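Structure ticket #2291
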Amino acid sequence: MKKQKFCYAAVTACVGLCSLGSCTQEEMAYQGEEEDISKLKVITRTDDESSKPEEGKIYIFNQNNVCIDTISPSALRDNTPTRIKPGTVKLIAIGSNDLSAYNLPYKSTVTDSSIIKLNSGRALTDLILGTTTTTLEEGETTQTDITMSREVICLKHLTADNIPDDIIGTEIMVGPMYKNIKLNGKYTNDVDTIRIALQKDPNEEGVWVYKGDSIFSLPSKGNPSFILRLKTSDTTTEYTYQLNRPLTKNHFVKLDIDFREGIKTYIASSLSNPVWEGTDSIKYQYQKEDISNEVSVKHPEAGGRYNKYYVVSVDKSKRTAVLLRRKGASGVTNDSVLNARLNSINRPEWSIGGWRLPTIDECKSILSTARIVDEKSVDLNYEVDPGTYYCTKDGKLATVTLKGNNTKRTLTENDNSCYSADYIFRPVIEISY
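Resolution: structure written out below.
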C-alpha cells in the first residue's frame, strides 16, 4: 500500500490591538511520522513591528475553494502544527482584539464570501483580515507571509461644547455605516447607524463628552450624516450635518461639536497615526435655527408598555426607563450559563447597557403589578407566570416566589438563593428615550 504523505503547518499569527504589530520569525521544527514531509510557516503581519497581537484564526482552502482545515486561536497561541496534504492552498486570516465577539463560520460551511457575524448583544471589535496563496512541496519547508489589513474605523474622542443648560441628554448618531463584512473583505448591502450617548462634564459648563471604551465600526457607505440629538424634559431636537466624504477604514475618528448660533460648519482632517493610517479630525457647528427634526416627549409609564416592552420603572429627570424582557426562560444553572443567556438576547432600541437580572425591588415591583398568566391570556410575552424568579440583592443572587392569581397574589423573598433550572429568568435592561 502506498504511503500517503502530509505536510505540517507551523503557524505564528499576529492579529489584534489598536497598535497592531507583526510576529517575530521564530523557527519551528516538527518531526513527522513519515520520512518526507513539508512544513508550512505562516506569519500574519501588519506594516508595523511594534507590538504583539492578540487573537487570530486561519482558514485553509484547497484549489477547489473548499476549506480543508482551520488553525484555531488556541493552536496559534500554542504553535500547534496542523496536518494537511501538500499542494497549493489559499490562507484567509482573521484577527481581532476579542474574537469571542464573532460567530465565525464553521469549516464545513465556510467560503471566502462567508459573512463575519457578530454574536447577539456584542459590539464590533478591532478587526483585521488577510489572504495569500502558497504551494507546499513534499520534503521542503515553505514560509509565507500574510499581510493583514484593518477593516474598521475607531471613534475615540467625542465632545460637544456650548450645549444649553436645559439639555438633559446628548447623543450623536453617525451613518449609514456598513453593517457586515465577508472573509474576502467585501461588504454586504446592509447598513447600520452608530449611536453614542455623551455625558455631561461636571467640571466644564456646557460641555458633554463620551467616556466609554473605543467604538469600532466598519467604514461608512458613502458620505455619512452626523445627527446631534438634544433632549430636554419635554422635547427631542435633532440637527443633521452631512459630511462631504466617506469615513474610510484604518482611521481614528475624532469628533468635536460646537453648538452655536450663526456660525458656519467646516471640516478639518489630519492623518498622523503611525500604526493606523491616520486620524480624521472632524469639527462642526450647528445653528439653533437649523433643526432637522423636533418631537414632543411621550414619557413611558411604570407598569405600562413602551415599544411592546413592559415598563418596570421610569426616571423622567434622566429620560431613562427600565424594561422587562418580553419572554421568560428557565434553565439557568450557573454564572456562565446566565452570562451566555444575557449575551444572546437582542437589545431593544436605545438601550444604554446590557441585559441584567432585576434587583429584588424591581423584581417585587414586576411581580406585584404585571398581569399573571391565566386561561384567558393571549399575550404571554408581557405577562408573568407563578413561580420563583431570579433577581439580585446587595450584589448577590436572590429569588422571589410569586403565588396566586390576578385577584390575590403573594410574594415571598427567599433566603440562601442558589441556581436552579426550575427558576424563571426574566432579565431587564435600561434604555434612554
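Closing remark: The CA atoms of residues 259 and 286 lie 5 Å apart.
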